[in-house]
Amino acid sequence: MISGGFTCKSCGQEHDGIPFGYTMAAPVYWNPDLAARPGNMLAEEQCVIDNEHFFVRGRIVLPVRDADDDFEWGVWVSLSKANFVRMAEVFEGPARVQEPPYFGWLSVILPGYKPTTLDLKTNLHTQELGVRPLVELEPTDHPLAVEQREGITVARVQEFAEIALHQ
């Protein structure tokens, strides 16, 4: 979702719109060189490293208090092998929404946050077919967890856009 244009504080130029979401391409632990080795795989919704570390894609939704749309981070969460296998077993079935949340660790470094977002505790909530799981952060005082609970403003969304444009 994109709102109206904005004047960038970094470069002073007028930009056409503000994206209301960004996606991390892979878990922070992924390296493209891993793809050539057995036991490693990066797919659209899942990632495995050395047949030992298991990740799934999810969404962190931040309510935007002064807009009609929410902001979304597309992220990766690590799961235990047992939870990864269970999630894969039920992934294509409509009953997956009845699964309890899966515990995991946030496996991305999101720009614009200090301290780092890497390894924040999460619960991954499976959604209906065709919708990526929702990631619920442990309710701590980390800025991302606070923003998930309390929401953000369009000005904060613009900060994310400025980081993305000039990083």
Automatic annotation (TrEMBL):
InterPro entries: DUF2199 (IPR018697). It comes from the Bacteria. This is DUF2199 domain-containing protein. It comes from Lentzea alba.
